[in-house]
Design a protein that fits this description.
A 5-stranded mixed β-sheet has the order 9-8-7-10-11, sandwiched between helices. Strands 1-2-3-4 form a 4-stranded antiparallel β-sheet, with helices on one face. By secondary structure, it is α+β, with helices and mostly antiparallel strands. The chain is 52% helix and 10% strand. The longest helix is centred in the C-terminal third of the chain and has 26 residues, at 523-548.
Length: 721
């Protein structure tokens, strides 16, 4: 054996072999070699690569580059950075072959199943799956380690976990049991993988945005725990398959909350995505700075070209206006609200009081799954939830020893029977606004077609409450009506696209809009307003016709010379000739103003069938859009308009969870990476991260523990006075 090894060494060290390899390296065409590499592979600077005249016989060598290093032959993987000694006489080829079959970066191995861990999985039998008697069997399964790593990054982003989660003992133990062969990456590697996934998903989204017709934007600003001002920009659009999309396209620091700074930041964002020429509307709240921001963006779209010269670009957030209207009303009932709030606070601030409260609920036989909740004084909808819940436990509060007596302020005294009566009526009054706000705040379904009718519903509610016999509620309705009139009292102040959106809903169209306007303003004024809306709709249709008529297939504009077939009896008498000429003239009218306008009229006059009544607006357009090529273009743009900024505001909730007091060191770039990628990865209908436990479920679980004697060692201390 020793002599054999010596023989091989002698062969390799011969001057002839070394010179042959050196000559091959000097003749290598580097440019040709680069062309044979995968797209993301680059040649290392300084390496002396070589290409053999006669290729090696083993197939796995095609995955390697050969090069000389200090006179010795080595092989470099084309798909990763690993290298191996490659002289067949001295080193053998086992390492080279094994790596070629297991390299996770090589796309061939993914298809072959290499790099996978084989597992034995138990598959239930045909019988009852919950029964132990069911026949089962073992089957083979495989785990792709690369896919496990991708799933890990997906989990970190979607579930808002810290990067160091992968370094925790519990997670390491879980992976050692579930997938022992998986190499857990470090938190630095996880952060790097998150950014790579962000860039990959951003490329996909750019392609999607490139093919959309127009986009509508919502934006808002937020100050983080780091004292950094962030701005969120969300794009809303309907694709060619009539699917509504909501995508966060930016979550970045902003230098100032001034309007000009906001406008420039939005413009820069749109330009970076290459969609500045697709901007249709911007939905913002009623801050004065947003008026300046929209003015800046209007000038931008006017330079590029836009629909209606950007006149209707600015959309005011309806949810924000409702918030202002409601607060003007409920301040009239501040005392009774404060008393209920203090009663809830008194109970919630002590675990012993909470237990006492639950005991009284059981004794009173109150069947309610609701639990007491605090409100956020700046959010009236949370105040409504607090009052609605507390009202269900009115009898229980009367059995508690709430603070009272000398030194207690009037608005901090226990709620009296009169207070509860006011709260009861207030809850009924606010419920309509609460449900309305929820309807228009959705981002996964179309809301613009509801906007006008929701505004009309508010008008109807306030009119009824203005005639209420209760003077307190009458005063509240009058106060709210004044705020309503400030924003929606004058129809001319409203964005006309709100009316057109209602018309483009096949369930309402122009007739329902006319009826609603006459109900609100009387027959004379209502019909005048309806005619204004109709005229604007037709003018907008004409504008879309001029934009898109050239893109829609049309029949020929000119007729062919008349020819007569002597074998056709239909020409005798000339009647059929006249009908044929009418049809030809009708065909030639396609693409002209008279014919195309009739498309809009056909849409307005067409009745829905019984099955179509059950369809939502987008489903109807996806089936019937081809029959109305111009009107469908209008619908694709206008129905995508969001009526609230909730889509952007909800991103700040995620931002607050990412930048909590324990993770306040994330850089703005990484914050944007995590929040944007999380939004892109979430499938439609997937709920957001809920960090609060369901109290009702926990209470039911506690009862199970008690019934099964699992809490014998738990000691409860009642400190009630």
């Amino acid at each position: 054996m020793a002599s054999s090894q010596s023989k091989r060494s002698a062969v390799y060290s011969s001057d002839q072999t070394a010179q042959t390899l050196s000559d091959a390296a000097s003749r290598t065409n580097i440019e040709e070699l680069r062309k044979s590499l995968p797209p993301d592979k680059k040649l290392m600077e300084g390496r002396q690569y070589l290409v053999r005249k006669s290729k090696r016989k083993a197939a796995y060598w095609e995955h390697y580059l050969e090069y000389l290093e200090n006179g010795k032959l080595r092989a470099e993987c084309k798909f990763c950075e690993k290298t191996f000694a490659a002289d067949g006489n001295l080193n053998g080829s086992k390492n080279v072959k094994n790596h070629a079959e297991k390299c996770l970066c090589n796309p061939v191995n993914k298809d072959k199943g290499k790099g996978k861990q084989t597992e034995l999985l138990f598959q239930p039998g045909e019988g009852d799956k919950d029964s132990e008697d069911g026949d089962g069997k073992l089957k083979y399964g495989t785990v792709n380690l690369k896919e496990v790593r991708e799933a890990l990054i997906h989990m970190i982003i979607v579930d808002e976990l810290p990067f160091k989660h992968v370094e925790k003992a519990g997670f390491k133990y879980l992976m050692s049991v579930a997938c022992p062969r998986f190499h857990i990456p470090s938190r630095t590697t996880v952060a790097r993988d998150c950014f790579q996934l962000y860039m990959s998903e951003k490329t996909k989204l750019k392609e999607l945005l490139k093919n959309c017709q127009r986009i509508c934007v919502t934006t808002d600003t937020w100050t983080s725990i780091q004292r950094i001002n962030y701005m969120c920009i969300t794009a809303h659009f309907i694709d060619n398959d009539w699917k509504l999309h909501k995508k966060i396209i930016n979550f970045c620091p902003i230098s100032s909350h001034k309007g000009e700074a906001i406008g420039k930041a939005v413009e820069a964002c749109l330009e970076s995505w290459g969609i500045e020429d697709k901007l249709f509307t911007v939905t913002v709240d009623n801050a004065s700075s947003n008026d300046l921001a929209c003015a800046h963006l209007r000038r931008m779209v006017q330079r590029i070209g836009c629909v209606s010269d950007g006149k209707f670009l600015h959309i005011r957030c309806i949810a924000h206006i409702i918030n202002l209207i409601v607060w003007d009303g409920i301040k009239e009932h501040g005392v009774c609200i404060d008393r209920v709030r203090n009663a809830v606070k008194y109970v919630k601030n002590s675990p012993a009081r909470i237990l006492r409260f639950k005991d009284l609920v059981q004794k009173a036989n109150i069947e309610s799954k609701s639990s007491l909740s605090f409100d956020v004084p700046t959010r009236w909808n949370s105040t409504y939830t607090m009052l609605d819940t507390a009202l269900k436990f009115q009898r229980v509060f009367s059995g508690l020893s709430l603070p009272d007596g000398v030194g207690v302020k009037d608005n901090e005294r226990p709620p009296e029977s009169n207070d509860w009566k006011k709260v009861e009526r207030l809850v009924v009054f606010l419920r309509g606004f609460y449900l309305l706000t929820r309807r228009i705040s959705g981002s996964l379904y179309v809301t613009s077609n509801r906007g006008f009718f929701e505004i009309a519903a508010i008008y109807d509610m306030l009119n009824k409450w203005e005639k209420n016999v209760d003077e307190d509620f009458q005063a509240m309705a009058i106060s709210m009506k004044k705020k309503y009139d400030k924003y929606w009292g004058n129809v001319e102040k409203m964005n006309m696209l709100i009316y057109v959106a209602a018309i483009l809903d096949p369930h309402s169209k122009l007739l329902v809009v006319e009826i609603t306007l006459t109900d609100m303003y009387g027959k004379e004024k209502g019909m005048k307003l309806a005619n204004d809306v109709k005229d604007f709709s037709y003018s907008l249709f004409d504008e879309y016709r001029s934009l898109y008529s050239s893109l829609i297939p049309q029949s020929g504009q000119s007729g062919d010379p008349m020819s007569i077939d002597p074998n056709e009896d239909d020409h005798i008498g000339g009647g059929s000739d006249y009908m044929k000429s009418l049809r030809d003239r009708a065909k030639r009218l396609k693409g002209t103003g008279g014919y195309v306008r009739s498309e809009f009229e056909r849409y307005l006059n067409e009745q829905l069938g019984a099955e179509e009544e059950e369809m939502d607006a987008l489903s109807w357009w996806s089936i019937n859009g081809h029959r109305f090529p111009i009107v469908s273009r209008m619908a694709r743009d206008i129905l995508a308009i969001p009526l609230s900024t909730v889509a952007s505001e909800s991103a700040f909730s995620a931002g607050g969870r990412h930048l909590d007091p324990f993770r306040s060191s994330l850089t703005p770039k990484m914050v944007q990476t995590l929040i944007c990628t999380q939004d892109w990865l979430r499938t439609k209908g997937m709920s957001g991260v809920d960090i609060e436990e369901n109290l009702q479920e926990l209470e039911e679980l506690e009862k199970d523990f008690q019934n099964n004697n699992l809490d014998d060692d738990v000691v409860y201390v009642d400190s009630m006075i």
